[in-house]
Amino acid sequence: MKFSLQWILSCCSKRAPKPSPKDDDEEDPWPERQPHGYQLYPPPPPQTILSNRTDYISQLRFRKHWPPDNTSDTPLFCLYRLYEFLVIDDVTGYRNTIEYFCRQRSWAVRDIPDPRDDDPSRYAFLACLPALLKAAFNERIKIGIVRDIPAIMSPEQAEAYRTAPESSKTYEEEPDWIKNVKPLEQTLYMVSHDGVVMSGFDDPRASNYFKRMNILMWGPHIHFT
């Protein structure tokens, strides 16, 4: 984790706080537990989160701030939050995160930095997420709900956005770095919130966004209005 942690933290002006020491008699499955409710980077690999899913959900619920030590948020911090919510299949959490990313108008999907994550499973999972964001945002752009659309509009303004010519629309694109991320050699089987594990990629519920990285995962609910 040395390289990826240093690189990610360089995106912000402050470093994450040091983990709090634990009692010697207590076995802590999280070597980098989130002290004081802050998010630490990078979070554990998918397999580690799933093996202690209940504990990890509790951490997310008591998280006080999203970026560590109340630093400025970044697309990469947000991408890791989305990763966490998708791994534990928290539908409300990952949908809220997708909507939050969408509201950050300066965060173009194609500009998401390469996390250069040194854990193969986590890196492969992260490489699937820009495609989800692209699909969610472009579906809205197609019907005139662009990312910089005003929160309050007159009916005439709303109609102008809806009927805007296709040539005036700018669609999101995936970043180039995902092309260099290698699919996992062994299939990563994800578990749904109710404990369901699919048997293979021929299952109609399997997501094509994750299939390309050899991750067997249900199709997440990414579209919103």
Structural account:
This protein has 225 residues and is mainly α. It contains eight helices and two strands, in the order αααααααβαβ. Strands 1-2 form a two-stranded parallel ribbon. Helix 4 packs antiparallel against helix 5. The model is unreliable at 1-36 (pLDDT under 50).
What is this structure's SSE topology?
Elements: H1 2-9, H2 46-51, H3 53-61, H4 75-87, H5 91-103, H6 120-142, H7 155-162, E1 188-189, H8 208-211, E2 215-216
Parallel strand pairs: 1-2
Helix pairs in contact: 4-5, 4-6
Spell the H/E element sequence: HHHHHHHEHE
What form results from the Cα inertia axes?
globular
Kindly report how far apart the N and C termini lie.
37 Å
| SSE class | mainly alpha
Please compute the radius of gyration using only Cα atoms. 19 Å
- Give the overall average pLDDT: 79
Low-confidence stretches: 1-36
Q: Total number of helical segments?
A: 8
The amount of beta strand, in percent, is under 5%
Helix content: 25-40%
Task: Briefly say what this structure is.
This protein has 225 residues and is mainly alpha-helical. Helices cover 37% and strands 2% of the residues.
Short key terms for the protein model shown above:
two-stranded parallel ribbon, globular, 225 residues, disordered N terminus, mainly alpha
